[in-house]
Task: structure prediction
Amino acid sequence: MVQRDYYDYDPSLPAAAIFTALFAVSSVLHIWHTIKKRSWFLIAFIIGGLFETIGYAARIVSAHDISSRTAFIVQTLLLLLGPVLFAASIYMILARIIILTDGQRYALVRPSWITITFVGGDILAFVMQGIGAAIFTSADGDASKAKRGENIVVGGLFAQLAFFGFFVAVSAVYQLRARAHLRSLPEHIQWRKHLYVLYATSTLILLRSIIRVVEFLMGYDGYIYTHEVFLYVFDAVLMLAVMVVMTIVHPGDIAIMLKEKERYGNLIHTDRGQPSHK
Result:
């Protein structure tokens, strides 16, 4: 009988290896896109992808040595915090879409305040989840300490859900209020696909965060925590989907269009300097 110091199951080596490879490839693609398109606002997204890669690599170590405390701590912290960094980049995408479409007057929150408000909330959620996970992973069988860590993580997850929910509402209100203005924009102002990708990735992160809240509310002896399949179905797959979607419709294109706008003036009212990408 294997001694399960940190897991109530034998971590799957094939699953960990597959997702380590997939997140590594996705991260490299995002690094390439970001450098090529000079979309430096996506650095947090890349770090999130690296967190996911290292987190699943740590699970490979756990599959070989289930009693490795370091591997357990690394995978717990990084897999919890990676999506928070994805969220930070998504917040900044909306601000750039609003500026690109000259839609500031329709926004519920000004673009400059979107970054300050939501990234600030994201930092709060990041710190809370990081502290909670650190306490949880260092509990060493102390049930009260583990519970305290779980409670802090849940608080961080609820903060993330609250800010993310408000963010999605701000995005939807902007599109609703600016619908006539947005329909009048020329074809080369490609706002639509980026806004819909924003909705899709936000939904995936929200779903993942809800499952994580339920997991920690149920406790480390709960059904979700003690069954590895939930980690892969409701975390790994969803977060990989976020990275894949953002690779196919890369937000760096917004940075290119904004640079074109700065170079040629207001592209909404001129045909000069239309971006060549479609």
Q: What stands out?
A: Residues 183 and 192 are 10 Å apart (CA to CA). Confidence is low (pLDDT under 50) at residues 269-278. Residues 13-260 form a domain with the Rhopdopsin 7-helix transmembrane proteins fold (CATH 1.20.1070).
